[in-house]
Structures are given as structure tokens and as C-alpha cells.
Amino acid sequence: MAKKATGPVDQNRAFFGHPAGLKTLFFTEMWERLSYYGARTFLFLYMTAEVSHGGRGMSDGGAGLVMALYMSSVYLLSLPGGWIADRFIGQRRAVTWGGVGIALGNALLALPIDGAFYPGLAIIAIGTGLLKPNISTIVGQLYGAEDNRRSAGFTIYYMGINIGAGLAPLVGMVFAQGETFKGFLADHGMDPNLCWKFAFAIPAIGMVFGLIQYALGYKKIGDAGLQPTIPSDPKKAAKDRTMLGVVIGGMAALVGGGILLNATGILPMSEDFVGNVFGVGLLIAAVGIFIGFYKTARDQGERARVTAMIPLFIGGIAFFGVFEQASTTLSAFAERLVHRDFLGVSTPASFYQFPNAIFIVLLATPFAIMWAKLAKANKEPSSVNKFGIGMVFVAISFIVLLPTVSSVSELTSYYDTAGKVPFAYDAVSAAGEHLRVSPWFLITLYFFSTIAELFISPVGLSSMSKLAPQRLAGMVMGTWFLATAIGNYLAGRAAGFSASRGYSFLFNTLIITSLIIAAALFAVAPMIRKIMAAKHTDVVLPKATATEKPGPDSAL
Questions:
Q1: How many CB atoms within 10 Å of residue 49?
Q2: Mean pLDDT of 233-239
Q3: Which of the 8 DSSP states describes residue 18?
Q4: pLDDT tens digits for 120-134?
Q5: What does residue 146 show for φ and ψ, rounded to 5 degrees?
């Protein structure tokens, strides 16, 4: 029987009914998230580990400050990264160079050279700032303005994020903290404390795989993100080039000036001073960005879009400020205060970065069904209301930990009162072992925080993508990551906060703050929709569809 002839594959529907280029971006982002989260799952533990255990011997406050500056810079640099792609090199090249930077930075962290640590973190931050906003922008450009596959396409893309972030904790569990791997190193005549360095090497290798995959699928992306939007007016183009020089020169002068002032003793750069100045800078950047957007808006429609972004931006800051405790405060909590035994298996602290990705996979389908039914009944909440609901679940996640407060308070008395705690799990007196809390407390916390994530993270990213004028697509996407940067900064500083004030004070502060933000979002939601409807009936505040769900920028 003759075989039925098949026609050429429709490249616009070659990947589960979506453009073939989505597959390339899916796997590129998967490897990038595995690379980023692979190192982040154990970075705080590495910095606070004793030097005798291969760590850096830093205090919680010092390590928390580094995490605050590093994690916020990763997202803050999305702003210039998006602008550089928009105006000079295009999103496609930005993704390539960003991936190279991420691989190189992780390679520096893997070197047994103490001086390579901070340059490695800086290069990773720069690389992620180039890659992260621009690959998301390319995903959006695969679809036309009226293509109803857009939200579903972002859902598939987010699955790649979640797969990469979900696998990432294995790097910490197997290499950084795995006793089996330490034994392997010892059996082969190597120092077991080198486990940290081998663990940093895995993300570097992962990003190299991502770059190879991206290069092989480059042509499938078509023209999306290929060309920058260079102003046709030579004067405007020259102004952009001047601005680029000012940005690069200003950053170099700021870093160089700070080093010089500290070296000469004119203005000593203490940890708190650097952290506080950076925080003030983030605030100024946020205000300046929105003023700039508003002033450069071409019409009332664009101004309305800027207004609609503000509550999403503030809600994003609040969410990530609490959610990203996972890599700092909660990482230390798991290392020092939680029983190692879970379902009969000894689990290292990095294991607790894993439940979030599991819950994302388990809850995505029920959420999709729920949104579909609510949309059909015309009862789906607006984006701002979804943010408010998410913040309520964030508060609930930390309410779960309140029953542990008395045990935790007593157990921490076994530690050094200066806030410098022993790294080893068994370093605490055996008398305090019975005070350690059940792993189920943390797992339940991550269950509720994942629900919050499903309400917030995909809604913010997708809404920003829809609200962005085409000429500022990269910059607006970078603005969403600025909210993430501020949230990560607050999460990092909380590690020192909990060391000085205690977990009980921190937990209650996070709960109260989350509920206040939720109430404010619920209050402002009707006003935002009324502004949009009254002035510009053709511009509405977008709602997430049934298929939207987050990744670790989310799971970021």
C-alpha cells in the first residue's frame, strides 16, 4: 500500500501547535534557569559555611547583603539589558552574549581562587541582565497582536522555566551537600570540601549546553528579536549612543570611585553603608523609570498603560520580597532548625528548594481549569485582584511557621549570640535536637507560597508584555524585573534582620506586611479599571487567561 505523502511542516505550528522558534526558546530558558538556580540553591549556605568546611565563613548579615546585591542586580541589569537590545544589538544577540556571561561567571565561581568569587557573581548578573528580559520579549514577538495562542505560548515557555528551576536543587543536593559525592572526592584523593566548587561548575556546563541548543535552533526563531529598533532620525540615534556611553561610564566611575574612597579612608564602605545606598538607588530608579515612561508617552492611551503598570509593579515588589526568602532566611532555617530525616531519608537543606517546582506542576492544571470556568462565567478576577489574592496566600504561608516559634527561639540559643552560627548540622548540642521542627512545616509553607505564585508571577510578566508599546518592549519587560530586583534586595537584607531580631519578629512582620499590601491592591483595583474604561475604552487592563502559570521568576 502506498504511503500517504506528507506536506512540509507548518513552522508556525510545529511545536505543539505553536511556532517552531518557541521550542528553541523553551530549552534555552530551561538551561539558563537550571544554571542560575543551580548555584543559588546553595550560595547562601556556601557563604555562611565555616572556612574549615570549604565555605567563606561569613555572618548571616554579610551573606544576606551579598545575596541582596547579587539577586537584585541580576534583575536590575535587565533594564539596561533590555534597552541595549532594543536600540543597539537586538534581542537575539543579547541572549547570546548573556548566555556567554552566565557560563563564564559560573566558571569563575568554580575556580579554587578566592578573588574570583565576586567577579564571578558580577559577570553572572550582567549576563542574566542581557538574557532574561530579551528572551521573554522574543517569545512575545513570535505571535501577532491578535494571535490567541499567545498566553498558551507563554505557558509552555514557563514550563521550560519550571523544569530548569525544578532540576536545579539537585545540584545542591547531589554535589554541594551530598555526602555520597564528598565520599567520591575523598576516595579519589581530593579534598571533600571542593564539593562546593564542583557544584558551581555544573551550572556553567549547563549554560554551555543551552548556548549550543540556542545556536542550533537559531533559524527557527525567524525574524523575532533579530533587529534593534534604531531611530530613523540620526540625531535621536546619536543621542542613544551618547546615553549608552554615559551609562557605561557612570557605572565604571561609580564602582571605581567607591573603591578609591574606601582605599583612601575618605569614605569607608561598610556593609551597611553599601547596602543602604544600593537600596536608595533602587527606589530612585523605580520612581525615575515611571516618570520617564509617563513623560515620553505619545498619547493618553500610553499614559493609561503606565498607570495600569503601577499596582502590578508594587505588588510584584511585595511578592518577591517575601517569596525570595527561600534562598536566604528559609535556607538557613532549613539548614539549622529542621530535622534532617524526611520520610526516612536524610535530606540536606537544599532539598527544600525543590517542593516549589513540584507544586507548580501539580497545581498548574487545576488552576487552568479554574480560570477557564471563571472566564466562561465572566467572573475571572482582574490582574490587580489576582495580585491581592496572591498576597493573602503569601501571608498564610508564613502563618504556617508560627507554631515553630517557641522551639526555634529556644534552639537558636544554642548558637553563637553574635549571629555567626556553626555550619555543621550536628554542631548544636544534642540537648537541643528534640527542638528541631518537622520538615512538613517548610513543605506546607512552600505549598501556599506556590499558590501565591500562580496568582502573581505569570500575571505580572504577561500583563507587562501586553501593556508594553512595541518601541519600548524590552524596557517595559525590564521594568517588571526591576520590581523583582527590589523584592530580591529586601529578601536578602531580611537574613541579617532575622539574625538580629529573631525569626518570630521576621515572620510576623512578613505576615502583617503581606496583608496590608493585599488590602491596598483590593482597594485600588476598581479605580484602575475605571480609569482605563473611562478614558480609553480601547485599552483595558489585561487579565491572565486560563493557561497562564509561572516559572521561578517565579520559581526567577
A1: 24
A2: 75
A3: B
A4: 999 999 998 889 888
A5: -105, 10
